[in-house]
Design a protein that fits this description.
The radius of gyration is 18 Å and the shape is globular. It is built from 10 helices and 10 strands. β2, α3 and β3 form a beta-alpha-beta unit. It has one domain: Spore Coat Polysaccharide Biosynthesis Protein SpsA, Chain A, CATH 3.90.550. α1 crosses α2.
């Protein structure tokens, strides 16, 4: 059985249908994890994630970490019952009424007490050793940030072989890209860094996507970005923007053409990126 199998019993399901015993277990586990003097702050951001947040928190509640941890949440102006989920499991959380991923992450960053900050997305499930592996690499000299890899949820719409082939090709692409432009390979759901340096850089709040990459770009002046490829740190998530392209084939073709146009990315470094008009929040 996969490490995430049991979490799927509540993932993408109405929160009202979740077993009371499961909610109680998650609440107890989270309370046992919380430390008043955390070395690492694990911050979950959520916008309309009432059907997915409980699964995410269940996975985090079973984390095995030797470092002192705090787990906090951010409710980014959700219109569903996201806030009810935070309340039900007793997780400390903050309401951020200004809506964008940048505002949500910035809210968490401003309230974090740990030396290190781990970004968590509410639609993602995390393996038990994830936090410890991320922090162990952040503890290494010269490392400003750490990012890892992700796989996709199994479902009836995507074949197992198609998913694995897509992930393999994508992982190869990210590995090559990370040599010169690691900031382009960073995703917020699998990203951690030094809290104080993150505050110095800040998150852009005016864009729909890419706030994580911009943070990573700014952190490079403090040290290197470490690409954690250990399978024990590979998270599992939904299909997101990949799913919007229709099939995996369409998604692969679209991204392949985009990367062919930007072959220079593999051989050069960049210190500034211009936001596309369609990515600006009006």
């Amino acid at each position: 059985m996969k490490w995430y199998s049991k979490y799927l019993s509540v993932y993408e399901k109405p929160f009202e249908a979740a077993p009371a015993a499961t909610i109680a277990t998650i609440k107890e586990n989270l309370q046992q994890l919380q430390n008043d003097q955390p070395l690492v702050s694990v911050v979950v951001i959520a916008y309309n994630e009432g059907k997915r947040l409980l699964g995410c928190l269940w996975s985090l509640s079973e984390s095995q970490c030797k470092y002192p941890v705090e787990i906090i949440g951010v409710n980014n102006n959700s219109k569903d019952n996201t806030e009810d989920v935070y309340k039900a499991v007793g997780l400390p959380y903050y309401n951020e009424l200004k809506q964008s991923p940048g505002y949500a992450r910035l809210c968490g960053l401003n309230h974090a007490r740990g030396k290190y900050y781990i970004c968590i997305d509410a639609d993602t499930l995390y393996p038990p050793g994830y936090i410890e592996l991320m922090v162990s690499h952040l503890e290494q000299p010269g490392v400003a940030g750490v990012y890892s890899l992700w796989s996709y949820m199994p479902d009836e719409k995507h074949s197992w072989l198609g998913v694995k082939l897509y992930e393999l090709l994508r992982d190869i692409h990210l590995r090559i890209q990370s040599a010169r432009r690691p900031e382009l390979s960073v995703r917020g759901m699998v990203f951690g860094y030094h809290t104080e340096w993150g505050r110095q850089v800040g998150f852009p709040v005016h864009i729909k996507r890419g706030e994580d990459g911009m943070m990573a770009l700014g952190l490079k002046k403090y040290g290197r970005l470490f690409f954690l490829r250990n399978r024990a740190a590979r998270v599992i998530t939904g299909y997101g923007t990949v799913g919007k392209d229709g099939s995996f084939f369409n998604s692969f073709i679209k991204r392949a053409f985009a990367n062919l146009k930007g072959l220079k990315y593999y051989f050069t470094k960049e210190n500034h990126y211009k936001d596309r008009k369609e990515n600006i929040i009006e």
